[in-house]
Amino acid sequence: MKYDVVVIGGRVAGSTAAYHAARLGLSVLLLERNPEIGTPVQCAGGVSDSFFKSTGLKPLPEFTCTRIRAAAVNGPLGARIVTENPVVRGYILERKSFDKYLALRAAEAGADVLTMSIAGDLIFREGSVSGVVFRGPDGVQEVECGMVIAADGVQSSIARKAGLETGFRPADLCSCVQYEVAGMDVDPETMEFYFGSRFAPSGYLWVFPKGEGRANVGLGIRRKSCSERGPLSYLNRFMEERGFKRIEFNAGAVPVCGPIERTFTDGLLVVGDAAGQVDPLTGGGIHLAAECAKIAGEVAAEAIESGRVDGRFLSRYEMRWRKKIGKNLERSLKFRKILDGLGDKELDALLKSLEGKDLSSISKISLLRILKDYPSMLRILRDIL
Ligand SMILES: Cc1cc2nc3c(=O)[nH]c(=O)nc-3n(C[C@H](O)[C@H](O)[C@H](O)COP(=O)(O)OP(=O)(O)OC[C@H]3O[C@@H](n4cnc5c(N)ncnc54)[C@H](O)[C@@H]3O)c2cc1C
Q1: Does residue 90 line the site of ligand 1, with CB under 6 A?
Q2: In contact, 119 and 152? CB cutoff 8 Å
Q3: In angstroms, what is the span from residue 346 Cα to ligand 1's centroid?
């Protein structure tokens, strides 16, 4: 077996990279360890309109559940703000169908997709990654390739085998648990967020409506807060209080520490959660994974075409994705640090001071005025704004 590119991991990052590499004329093999693309689900599926705008994808009914027009933020002590700011507009995706759609799109562009195929080891030629050993339905196989794209998620082991530092420490991760629930009376167009130590210390709880009384109800807690009570105990308490009916459970971790230091080496690129390309404030990774994977697929095509898969050539991948999203990731990390520093009272007071205000028209000056009672936050905010 011989391909220009082997992509490891068949979800958002992997299928998107495979699609772009294949559409640009490369021979591509996509390996996914699970028998079915998109399952088990490990995501709430929230994406904003800007995701569709920048990826060029259409919000097709086959993978979108609901149109979101508003977001409500609930404080720990009763404060609540609702915003219809255009930046919150978007969709809740049915990830099972969406991931399948992306893999199908890659296959239609020419990529070969193999499920139940676990990449184990890398093969090197003169120090550069030049193949993959994987265990598939037909046993252990070797595939030769020009280069590899590692899109194997938060527990990524592939890039580490090529010498990159992709391991996340427990403190870098947000532990997430989620139920899909049914028979709920919720506004189908509003995403609800709950903050504070009662709901999700150093994280947040979400209720994302999926239409027809269904919703994804979950929460993420940074690992350092998990020592006393696990995330599931917070979620179960919320579920019991609301009387929600569970139909599915899933769990996963999200890296919220910012991206890894280096995302390329000789013959290999890393993309998506494996590269830490996740917004550290929201934990959202779908949009960033797709954007960076497109760049990875394009750089792979340039590299194969010019016969240059060395790290020096592939460094253009890192330059391009950092130029596109690097500043936003840094800003989000700073904002998350502000939130981390807020106690329940401060958090609630901050939300109360924003109640009834048109958030889209809040200027830097008015935000600074609102926050004048919180000197530590003011300092960080001045830095950010
Ligand atoms: C509970 C939860 C809720 C979330 N909600 C949202 C949200 O609402 N909005 C949002 O934008 N983001 C959300 N995220 C984050 C988002 O799901 C991820 O950032 C995104 O899915 C990352 O995609 P990926 O393709 O990089 O990685 P993954 O989705 O982790 O995919 C990696 C794939 O690689 C495969 N794989 C791993 N190792 C191997 C191997 N050796 N061989 C072959 N295959 C392998 C895995 O089976 C998997 O299919 C959430 C995350 C969690 C855990």
Answers
A1: no
A2: yes
A3: 33
- Residue 342 amino acid letter: L
Cα separation of the two ends of the chain:
52
Give the Cβ contact number of residue 39 at 10 Å. Answer: 13
Ligand 1 pocket, residue 42 CB under 6 Å: yes
CB-count burial class (<10 Å; 0-12, 13-18, 19+) for 32: buried
User: For 58-113, what is each residue's pLDDT tens digit?
Assistant: 999 999 999 999 999 999 999 999 999 888 999 999 999 999 999 999 999 999 99
pLDDT tens for each residue of 5-50 = 999 999 999 999 999 999 999 999 999 999 999 999 999 999 999 9
**Nearest alpha carbon to residue 78 among 271, 352, 314:** 352
The pTM for the full model equals 0.94
The Å distance, Cα 17 to ligand 1 centre, comes to: 14
Domains and CATH numbers, the chain: 2-68+90-169+260-327 (3.50.50.60), 171-255 (3.30.9.10), 337-384 (no CATH)
Question: Which of 15, 19, 33, 122 should be mutated for ligand 1, with most atoms under 8 A from CB?
Answer: 33
User: Within 10 A of 166 (CB to CB), how many other CB atoms are there?
Assistant: 25
> With contact defined as beta carbons under 8 Å apart, do 205 and 59 qualify?
no
Give the ligand 1 atom nearest the CA of 177: 1
* Nearest alpha carbon to residue 249 among 178, 200, 175: 178
pLDDT tens per residue across span 171-184: 899 999 999 999 88
